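Case study 2.
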Amino acid sequence: MLAAYDASRELTALGIRHAVVGGIAVGAHGAPRATKDVDFLVNQEDAFIGALILSFKPGVPIAVRGIVVDYLTPEGNEHVELLRRALVEAPESEGIPVVPLEALIVLKLQAARRRDLDDVARLCETADVEEHIRRYLLAEAPELMKRFGLAMKE
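Prediction:
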């Protein structure tokens, strides 16, 4: 987790809006699990240079304390506006911006690996959260409802 703090601090110093995603975000939303890297959501134009070939802007951390830092961008994702909104609305958890639960679940359902679907199920363990996410997906990402059903083992 120290790597996430250090990377977040550096991104903030560079003026790059960011939010942690992946396993660390799953933990921040109440379902801790082990992870080997730090994943951030960032706007492409903030963290990268180039169009066809992307390079990191100077100072953007790619590894901290021996931990790899990976980046996802809203650009190219079918839910680009949803993810851009998530960056603006990211609440802080222990001093680090964390992608909102709804956007995290969209990313997890898009990836659809077994671990991601397990994360979704753990994040939606209460009926209130499950129903909230179900309504959110119906409104914002209805094509992911089948995967949500798989995660919830319906």
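Residues 127-140 form the longest helix (14 residues).
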